[in-house]
Amino acid sequence: MTVSGQRILVVDDDPGIRRALHILLSREGYRVTQARDGMEALRLWRDSGGDLVITDLHMPEKDGIEMIVELLSHTPGIRIIAMSGGGQTRRLDLLSNASMLGAVHTIEKPFTLNEMMTTVRRALAVAE
What CATH number labels 3-125? Predict the structure, then answer.
């Protein structure tokens, strides 16, 4: 599948992060959908699916860990990148948990746009 055909769901309660990732990924040719929390993300995923989910782990309503569990129970093999900021210990614990649950990659906030694009390319290459 070409990049232009690949769909990415970006999930973060921070509108600035969502907007920055939308701009970055769109410029690279990906089709991007955005959700502000895990509940909205699950609804969007059920409605239209996609090739990759990039999600924050600490969000209101349904956090990223709960969302990962639910997504993987309905769509085994889905590619997920988990990202987290916050305190060093909590961030590493959350990212470790996300990885153990099935996230194909994790990335710590703050990250550079180059780091994110490298992670996205690696995550999408897993299925090729």
Answer: 3.40.50.2300
